Structures are given as structure tokens and as C-alpha cells.
Amino acid sequence: MKIKAVKPFVLHVPVTGSQIADSTHTITHWGVVGARIDTEDGLSGYGFTGTHSHLPSDQLITRCIETCHAPLLVGEDASDVQRLWLKLARNPALQWIGRAGITTLSQAAIDIALWDLKAKAEGVPLWKLLGGQVRDKVRAYNTDIGWLSIADDLLVQGARRAVDQGFTGIKIKVGSTVERDLRRLEAVRRAIGPDVTLAIDGNGKWDLATCLRFCRGAEPFDVYWFEEPLWYDDVKGHAELARATRIPTALGEQLYTQDAFSEFFSQKAIHWVQPDVTRMGGLTEVWRVCETAHSFRLPVAPHAGDMSQVHVHLSYAHPACQVLEYIPWIKDCFTDPADVVDGYFSLPQLPGAGTTPTEAAWKQFQKPVG
Ligand code: MG
User: Fold this and answer.
1) Which of 15, 54, 210, 305 has fewest C-beta within 10 Å?
2) In whole angstroms, what is the distance from residue 340 CA to residue 335 CA?
3) CB under 8 Å to 71, separation ≥6 — which residues?
4) Alpha carbon of 258 to those of 187, 254, 303, 314: distances in Å?
């Protein structure tokens, strides 16, 4: 499994409808920015990170893959995933520049491509390589019905439709005004009844005082978790909020290292753990976070920056993973799409990590790497 070449790629894939918004961003496309790794024996592995499809930023990632990471990989044995993760994390060319953001997103794409290669070489889906199936089914929750940009009546209709399709969990965005968001939360809870889990996501917009006011109003509506209530790195604020409300808190999509998660765990600042393989240097580091979360007996609900293509393998294989996010924007770009049937993710069947793009995806969505 000697590595022959590492090549970056960019796909820009439209979101549902013409655009969506949360409390901090409005986007029209999802960026699938990644690496293809070819071995001398003719295998190709694919890995990617997720972006807001801003081409100049995406090209910073592709440039990092091509000029900083690739030279350390060519000639190496692709099956040495753990050793190569350390080699890239300690890349002298990235000292001081890295440990978060561009360098870590680039490393995520490479790490996922290496896992994809390893599973393909063994002829098994990644979940099997990770130790096999620990649960019969992975429960999906639908985020795509809950954007802040969706009008109140359409939000309620979408929530009902998701439940009719078999979803037992949904998530809606908050972070506009306390009054509007409480009104929407109450309307959705009324529409879906008491048996469907209903999470909310603030995307880090509010301060502690606003969160406390919101939570007092939201507690009667049985909120499953409040995701990113506060600024992403604010451990003390999350710990204070977790003590002050009966609503469980969740966070992780903006954390880049296992050390950052450990700080939230030890301060009892979050109840749900949301690492993302596309953000924190790949599956290798996320697996470590899942192990640590499990040692604290905290449940993991991976954040789907990959739109669950890789996380579905993790969720079938790791005992800490309880539920997985569903957003369908990019799934049809892959030969083994992360499909949901009757509210549960199908068990992936093809060898690899589910990251191989289809010919149609290349033709339709490919952008220049710079
Ligand atoms: Mg979120």
C-alpha cells in the first residue's frame, strides 16, 4: 500500500432549496473539499472536509493538502494510519501555523482517505474495520427541516412531514430573538407530539444572559439538547448554563482537538458530545474523543460536516454514539450514500468509508483547486 500520489479536489453541491440560514450564516452550497490518495497497487482512497463553498478559502485547504501534507505522505505505507496522523500533526512546516482551522481540515481529508483505503484494501466497509457493528440500527435526526430561514408555518409543516417519513428526532435552529424562537419551538412541539426528540441549535450566537432567559421559557417543551448555546470555546459559560437549566447542553463541531473536549468534560460543561471527523483531523482523533466521552459516560451525537458519509460507520461501530445527524445535501454524490429509511441510517455495504464520489458528481460539481 505504498502511496504514489496525493491530489486535492473541490466540489460545490447545492443545499436544499436555493439557500439556508442559521443564526450566523446563509449559504447556497456545501463545499466538499478533499484529497484523493493513490497507491502503487492501484487503489484510490477519498477523504474530505466540509465548507461553506467559498472558493478562495477552499483553495487554502487544497493548497495545504498539496504543498504541506502530500510531500510527507508519498512513498509511505498507507495502512500506517496512526503513525501518519502523528507525522502530519507534527509536520515541522506547519509548526505555529496549525493545530486548528485550515491545517486540521486538510489533515481530516487525508486521514479519512487513509481509512477509506485501508477498508478498501481489506474489502470491507469501514465500520467492520473499526471493530464491527455494536448496534442494530443508527437513529437519525433531521436537521434539514429546521433552518432559521424557514418561515414559521413551513417549519411546522416540515417537522410534521419528517415525522410522517419515520424520523423520531428533529432539530431546529434558534438564535434570532428569544420571543420568536420560543414561539417556533412551542409550535413544533405541538405539531410533532411528545414522542419525537426535539433538539435546538444556537450556533454560538447568544450570551449567557440570553441563553438563561431562553431556557426558562423552553424548559416546558422537553428539549433534547441545546447545541452551541454560547461561544464555542467558552468552557466556564457552558458549565454555568448546564448547572442553571434542566435542558441538556451539547457542543463540539468547532473543537479541533481531544484536549479541547477533555476540558469541557472535566468541567461538566456539556451533556452531549459532538465531534466531527471533517473538523478535527479525521476519524483518528474523533475515535479518541469517543473513547474519552465513553469513559465519562457521556453520549456522542457526531456533527455531520461530512453529511454522515463517514460518521455512519463510526456510529455503527462505537458504543458511545447514540444518534446521528441527517442532512441530505451531498449524499447522492457518493457511490455508497448515507441513506435513511424509516428514521434509521442504512448499514453501509460497500468496501471503504463511503467517500468515493460518483462520475456524475465530478461532472456536475467539480471546481478548480487553484
Ligand atoms: Mg450545529
Assistant:
1) 54
2) 15
3) none
4) 38, 12, 15, 16
Catalytic residues: 173, 303
Are both 98 and 147 inside the same structural domain?
no
CA 250 to each of CA 147, 185, 235, 238: distance values in angstroms, whole numbers, following the listed order? 18, 17, 12, 9
Report how far Cα 321 is from the mean position of its chain's Cα atoms: 13
Structural domain contains residue 351? no
pLDDT at 207: 98
Strand partners, 36: 7, 46
Helix axes of 235-244 and 208-218: crossing angle, nearest 10 degrees: 30
pLDDT bin (cut points 50, 70, 90) of residue 169 is very high
Helix (H) or strand (E) holding 171: strand 169-173
Residues 90 and 137 in one domain: no
What's the 270 CA to ligand 1 centre distance in angstroms? 14
Could you report the per-residue pLDDT of 202-257, keeping only the tens digit for each?
999 999 999 999 999 999 999 999 999 999 999 999 999 999 999 999 999 999 99
Grid coordinates given for 270: 456539556
Residue 112 within any structural domain of the chain: yes
356 by DSSP, 3-state: which?
coil
Question: How far, in Å, from the CA of 275 to the mean position of ligand 1?
Answer: 11
Residue 122, CB-side half-sphere exposure with 13 Å CA sphere:
16
On the 0-12 / 13-18 / 19+ scale of CB atoms within 10 A, 328 is: middle
The mean pLDDT of 111-117, rounded to a whole number, is 98
Same domain, 80 and 176: no
pLDDT number for residue 314: 98
Distance CA 369, CA 99 (A): 23
**Residue 277: which domain range?**
128-345
